[in-house]
Design brief:
Elements lengths: L1 E10 L5 H11 L2 E4 L10 H11 L14 E13 H10 L6 E2 L3 H7 L17 E3 L8 H17 L5 H11 L2 H9 L1 H17 L1
Antiparallel strand pairs: 1-3, 1-4, 2-3, 2-5
Helix pairs in contact: 5-7, 6-7
Length: 200
């Protein structure tokens, strides 16, 4: 199995957060590292998955706090094998790597954006190493554009700055990047809405 984007979880036990960051930076890998997840709790879904996989009761109970950990999203310039990524995870005692099919969606997961039933973390605390950037496929970008237009109409937004503030305040990194990158598209859309009302 090969892929450009991979994810894994690094627990804060053998290595500290600083040691994990220093190691990944030294390796030179492009990555985004979540804030420390220290408020996550075990859910019914976690319990059901555990039972299916292990066929025995876990040591923890639903509602217990999970061990503090970091979610790590890594990107390679070309397709890379699972074994190559595992060599990296082994150096920091992380979980086995999983191939990521949408790095933009997983980037949001670093802080549980859009996951209202999970603990929320501040996107400002994401650590970016070695020039990591989010890349959207064409279909992902179009889908986000649709969602942004829906947000404009649902929130009765009239000015461009309001849509920028909406995503800045909510921490939705994907949409914030898109509205600031494609500001002319959304400015023109807002202007056309305004002109339409004036003509009526």
């Amino acid at each position: 199995m090969k892929g450009r984007d991979w994810s894994f979880i690094a627990y804060i036990d053998t290595f500290t957060k600083e040691q994990i960051i220093d190691t990944l930076e030294e390796i030179g890998i492009q990555c985004a590292i979540s804030p420390l997840h220290d408020k996550d709790i075990y859910t019914q879904e976690d319990y059901d998955k555990w039972i299916r996989k292990n066929e025995k009761e876990p040591e923890w109970k639903i509602g217990d706090y999970k061990k503090p950990h970091l979610h790590v999203l890594v990107h390679f310039n070309g397709p890379t094998t699972w074994n190559n990524v595992k060599q990296i995870t082994d150096t920091i005692g992380a979980t086995i790597p999983k191939k990521v099919f949408s790095n933009s969606s997983y980037f949001n997961y670093l802080c549980h954006i859009g996951e209202k039933d999970k603990a929320q973390y501040n996107p400002k605390d994401i650590t970016i190493l070695n020039g990591y950037t989010i890349t959207l496929t064409e279909s992902e970008e179009i889908a986000l554009q649709f969602e942004i237009i829906e947000d404009i109409n649902k929130n009765n937004i009239k000015e461009y700055r309001q849509i920028v503030d909406l995503y800045k305040d909510s921490g939705d990194v994907e949409k914030f990047r898109l509205v600031t990158k494609q500001n002319q598209i959304f400015s023109k859309y807002l202007n056309s809405k305004r002109w339409e009302k004036e003509e009526k």
